[in-house]
Write a structure and sequence with these properties.
- The complex is a heterodimer.
- By secondary structure, chain A is an alpha+beta fold.
- Chain A contains five helices and eight strands; from the N terminus they run αααααββββββββ.
- Chain A has an eight-stranded antiparallel β-sheet with strand order 5-4-7-8-1-2-3-6, with no helix packed on it.
- Chain A has helices at 6-14, 19-31, 33-51, 60-74, 98-107; strands at residues 125-131, 137-143, 146-152, 162-169, 172-179, 187-190, 200-206, 220-223.
- In chain A, a hairpin with a 5-residue loop joins strand 1 and strand 2 (137-143).
- Chain A is 29% helix and 23% strand.
- Chain B starts with a helix and ends with a helix.
- Chain B contains nine helices and no strands.
- In chain B, helix 2 (11-19) packs across helix 3 and helix 7 crosses helix 9.
- Classes of the chains: A alpha+beta, B mainly alpha.
- At the A-B interface, helix 1, helix 3, helix 4 and strand 5 of A face helix 3, helix 4, helix 5, helix 6 and helix 7 of B.
Chain lengths: 225, 190
Amino acid sequence: MACPDRDDLVGHALGALEPDREREVARHAEDCERCSRELRRLAPAVGVLAESVEQVDPPPSLRERVLGVVREEAGRPASAPSPRRGRLRGFLWRPAAALGAIALLAAGAVGYLAHDGGDNGRSGEDFAMRSSIEGASGSLEVEGDGATLRARGMPQLAEGAVYQVWVAGGDGVRPSAAFVPHADGSATAAVPEAAAGATQVMVTKEPRAGMGAPHSAPVLSARLD
Amino acid sequence: MNREELQRLADEDLMPQIATRDSLAFEVFYDRHAGAAYSLAYRIVGDRQGAEDVTQEALISIWRSGARYDRARGSVRTWTLGIVRNRAIDTLRRDASRPAKVRFDPEELLEQRPAAERTDAEAMRRETARQVRGALSGLPEEQSRVIQLAFFGGFSHSEIAQMLHEPLGTIKGRMRLGMDKIRAALGEGI
């Protein structure tokens, strides 16, 4: 694709492009130094807009809620890398989530993909995710000590609802990133836990962020072992 | 690191600490940026509950994604507010009954904290925002309008052209010229 004109670069920086054109420009800019440089030049001007609004104090309760979630999740021990890849040995889940977790196992909606070998962790592997939603798709790219989930065609959600990523491993099923798709149905989420010995990554629809356990069958899933 | 040490870190150095799941580092990040995040969310969605939900989702997503900040996208503040803006626009689009708040009403009652409780940082944030608004008020109205509709309303070029009954090329040009003026004003020091 040829470089977009400046009108479209400015439109991209402000989120004013149509979804298809937005995707084209975003993909082009990833590989084009000239357009990336122009977008970097525009970033401070966009930042100024964002900071120009009348400043309003958030309520103290918001701080308590956000930091409450963060402290709880920070307190969970990080899963140790599995010494070898193997079948999932068992789940630990809270009683109230039993139905959801069983649904995750029973759905069987797992995707397999040939991946690079290597016995020492994962590096540069891509996993296609199987989807239970027509028109939706996802992939998990594992690189070094990180992993990125990319979704496309995800339906929009009711207010407050999120798509929640879950990671299954030797210590059970744990929540990872939560996301709300962009207007064009695309989403990107970092899933660092997937690079540390996880055997399965799943996405469910949840009524709100911060759920401790899944409450529905997965809409996207991939098996990593 | 203790709180005092974390508070001395620049944003760009704080983010890797958050990536190690350091909740105290995230607390410092929250105290620095939640006010600006909430203010932007409130500006876009127009009500406090919606602003709280958007801010909560955006900040928790930053925590859960390992705070993978990309310096190429500008400052940590700009990057954070970009995430907040996108979530707020998505909320607007999901809830069609909530009209886009494209014009801020200065007479609307805002949540106020007693002046005695305001920190220097909060006072500076307010003063900076006031100065920036002053600089932006120098933009021609037709340029300011299309930029506000796009950034705070989430409207596309073509939607704005339809709303204002103007040619698409005219709208694109106004947006570009307005942003060029903002960049020039930044160069002169807002």
